[in-house]
Amino acid sequence: MKIPRIMFAAPSSGSGKTMITCGILQALVNRGLNVASFKCGPDYIDPMFHENVIGTRSRNLDIFFTGTETTRYLFGRAAENMDISVTEGVMGFYDGLGGSSVESSSYDVSQRLDMPVVLIVDCKGSSVSAVPLIKGFKEFRENNIKGVILNNMHEKVYAPIKEMIESELCIEAIGYVPPVKELVIESRHLGLILPSEVEGLKEKLNILAEILERTLDIDSLIRIAGSVPDFRYEQPVLRCDPVRIKIGVASDDCFCFIYKDNTELLERMGAEIVRFSPLRDAHLPEDISGIIIPGGYPELYAETLSKNLTMLRDIKDRTEEGMPCMAESGGFMYLHEELEDTSGTFHKMAGVIDGKAFRTGKLSKFGYAVITSKKEGMMKKGTKMKGHEFHYWDSTDCGCDCEAVKTSGARYGCMHNGNNIFAGFPHLYYYSNPDVPHRFLTECRSYSERRP
């Protein structure tokens, strides 16, 4: 099938990928096109900015998590029947596993999905020097780089640089982005701040889209996206149950780090997702048979979470009754007896995990890992799952029921795998082993049959 597609990548992080990608998305939407968007790698926050533009969840493309065939399926299923699909790269274009490989890099995704690439080059403090940089990226590997966008460049400088790029490198210069200080997005310890925290974001994106309509050749981007080979994929075989079962999924400004493909996989397997807010709701939803608490920023909302005593009591009581619960990272921290906030104050939490979640001030266990259950619990012994960690908080009881093996070969214990609890710091990607969400739903059905 024909799936117009394009990737925006860069030589390094901090080159302006997210804002320029969002500006282009807004320009495409303003033209009336039906747009799908994707983010390379495990990032949660950049896709939220995409969502703010296109009105639906952006998805992740990650070769480490899902390999070639499943990644092609996840892309193709979401992109088919769309006018154009836009993918934002991760880190530097060639930066892959362990910082020493191109595997799972933006380059790797573009090759496996036959996706043309436009390189965004930050030209702050340079002009002609951008040309050999582009030349190096184009010649380093056989690749799909079809054009470049020069960020932080003034109009008067652009014209001669464009001519040099196109005459000497035979790469299309799509345009430039002038310095626009008021459109820079601030960051915090897990990456960019959330879209909800950017005042007037939609207005700013429309302003950016208007600028890009003047400084970029949007028609050329659409043409490049359309000049692609046909795309084929196969749907994986999944175990599904026709009888629906209600699963409560925490979803609010605090607990917002969850992959769209994770929840959709649960739905395909028979789950009816019921969203609730540990921040605002007094109680868990009625008639649910399982709980999922994803990651996020509980340290920013610790006082409010702690004051919601009825919700904390519900979660404690239900899990003690045997209701299955999966929690990761921020959700795992919420299950602790106490959580330290960003000012150093500890607050009472759900008390499901006997321990304290505390601030370390440094990045802990950053990166991908293969996680294997070492004991029989809610997840069977020997079950393998892929995930990643990215947190500045730690715990006095991280769990040791699983072993995590990093891409570097480093090993450490992690996770709680009890009779009805599967929780820890790693963020899990369900399509890396669909047996894990299926097992969770099986345990939820069993609980539903025997619950008080």
Short description:
With 452 residues, the chain is of the alpha/beta class. It contains 13 helices and 22 strands. It is 32% helix and 26% strand.
Account of the protein in words:
With 452 residues, the chain is α/β, with parallel strands linked by helices. Helices cover 32% and strands 26% of the residues. It contains 13 helices and 22 strands. The protein has helices at residues 17-30, 45-54, 63-79, 106-112, 130-140, 155-168, 201-215, 218-226, 260-268, 302-307, 309-321, 330-334, 435-450; strands at residues 5-9, 35-40, 59-61, 84-88, 117-122, 145-151, 172-177, 187-188, 191-192, 245-250, 271-276, 291-293, 325-328, 336-340, 346-348, 353-373, 384-395, 402-406, 411-414, 416-417, 421-424, 427-428. The chain has a 7-stranded parallel beta sheet, with helices on both faces. Strands 14, 15, 16, 17, 18, 19 and 22 form a 7-stranded mixed beta sheet that branches. Helix 1 crosses helix 7 (201-215). The model has no long low-confidence stretch (mean pLDDT 93).
For the biggest β-sheet, the strand order reads 3-2-4-1-5-6-7
Oligomeric status = single chain
Strand coverage percent:
25-35%
What shape does the CA trace take? Answer: globular
Number of helices: 13
Overall pLDDT score: 93
Terminal Cα span: 51 Å
Based on DSSP secondary structure assignment, what is the total number of beta strands?
22
Helix share, percent: 25-40%
Structural class: alpha/beta
Please mark out the parts with pLDDT under 50 across 5 or more consecutive residues, or reply none.
Answer: none
Roughly how many Å is the radius of gyration? 23 Å
Largest sheet: 7 strands, parallel
